[in-house]
């Protein structure tokens, strides 16, 4: 009985202390929580209204035949944008267009336009003129098309590096310049570059890909400053791993197709989720988006603020990769 009374007394004492603490912490918590809730409610309402701004917008998307590009086409289309689908494979573009026409949409829709193009052949003025002759304008350019790479620097032929740069950087820059001419005349538009976390932190065995994305980051930053006065926002998106065919279609050091799905890619974000987040960022006119999990964010932090730690971690990663490849070679 004595122990029970002691237990009750201790509980009552703890409850009183909690009430005493609440008199101090409670008002502070409410002062922080209520504005945060109001901000979230306002942001959600603003975002719902902003989706209406996409109705009738002409959105050109490269790499629209699969993966993230296809998901972005669906996301823009369902909110009433007129999407222009660009990629090398006409048959796949036709498939995407058919899927869009049969999809459930939240707004008035416009028939998707197909423009086959190859980013490695950077002469795009005719393509841009074709789009303008049909739509009369280009409101949003999404530079999503690209190619990945797997290999060691010492084993990689220079023509592989050149091909990666031709598609990921020079082709993207050439198309941007072709579209920019009309945007400057209209004094409006929005240019989006889909880069990569590897454009912020380079990984072993990704040298050509990381280099092309680093270059894209720098180009976007310069362009943003130059066109701000013309009401043309520039958004650069740095996603982590997204569950697409990117690693399967990657080039190896010899120029052959990698033809493997990396475990990290397999475990990546679904393209639909990434597309939703990117469109939200576009509506908010974000200058930069980093769309990834905790580990890539830690790597970005280390590279920026503790580079010696980042260098050490990357060296260990490269060493482990060599040992793994050596073990696989012996098994064969």
Tags for this model:
2 domains, Rossmann fold, oxidoreductase, disordered N terminus, Sc_DH/Rdtase_CS, 332 residues, seven-stranded parallel β-sheet, alpha/beta
The second-level CATH architecture of the largest domain is: 3-Layer(aba) Sandwich
Q: Overall pLDDT, averaged?
A: 88
How far apart are the first and last residues' alpha carbons, in Å?
Answer: 75 Å
Low-confidence stretches: 2-8
CATH topology description of the largest domain: Rossmann fold
One letter per element, helices H and strands E, the order comes to: HEHEHEHEHEHEHHEHH
Which structural class do the helices and strands define?
A: alpha/beta
CATH class of the largest domain, named Alpha Beta
Radius of gyration, Cα only, in angstroms?
A: 25 Å
Keywords: Membrane, Oxidoreductase, Transmembrane, Transmembrane helix
Protein name: Ketoreductase domain-containing protein
GO molecular function, one term: oxidoreductase activity
Transmembrane segments: 20-39
């Amino acid at each position: 009985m004595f122990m029970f009374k002691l237990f009750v007394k201790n509980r009552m004492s703890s409850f009183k202390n909690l009430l005493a603490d609440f008199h101090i912490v409670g008002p502070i918590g409410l002062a922080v929580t209520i504005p945060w809730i109001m901000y979230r409610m306002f942001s959600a309402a603003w975002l719902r209204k902003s989706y209406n701004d996409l109705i009738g917008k002409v959105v050109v998307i490269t790499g629209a035949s699969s993966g993230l590009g296809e998901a972005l086409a669906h996301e823009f289309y369902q909110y009433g944008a007129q999407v222009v689908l660009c990629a090398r494979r006409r048959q796949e573009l036709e498939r995407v267009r058919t899927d869009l026409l049969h999809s459930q949409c939240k707004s008035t829709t416009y028939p998707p336009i197909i423009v086959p193009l190859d980013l490695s052949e950077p002469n795009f003025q005719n393509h841009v003129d074709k789009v303008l002759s049909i739509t009369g304008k280009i409101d949003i350019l999404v530079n999503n098309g690209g190619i990945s790479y797997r290999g060691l620097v010492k084993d990689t032929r220079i023509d592989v590096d050149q091909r990666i740069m031709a598609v990921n950087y020079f082709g993207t820059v050439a198309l941007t310049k072709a579209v920019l001419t009309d945007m400057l005349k209209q004094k409006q538009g929005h240019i989006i570059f889909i880069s990569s976390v590897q454009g912020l932190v380079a990984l072993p065995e990704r040298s050509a890909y990381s280099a092309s994305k680093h270059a894209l980051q720098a180009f976007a930053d310069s362009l943003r400053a130059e066109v701000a006065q013309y009401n043309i926002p520039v958004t650069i998106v740095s996603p982590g791993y997204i569950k697409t065919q990117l690693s399967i279609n990657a080039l190896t050091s010899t120029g052959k197709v990698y033809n493997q799905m990396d475990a990290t890619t397999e475990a990546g974000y679904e393209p639909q989720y990434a597309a939703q987040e990117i469109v939200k960022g576009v509506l908010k006119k974000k200058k930069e988006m980093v769309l990834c999990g905790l580990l890539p964010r830690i790597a970005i932090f280390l590279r920026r603020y503790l580079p010696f730690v980042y260098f050490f971690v990357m060296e260990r990663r490269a060493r482990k990769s060599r040992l793994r490849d050596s073990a696989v070679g012996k098994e064969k």
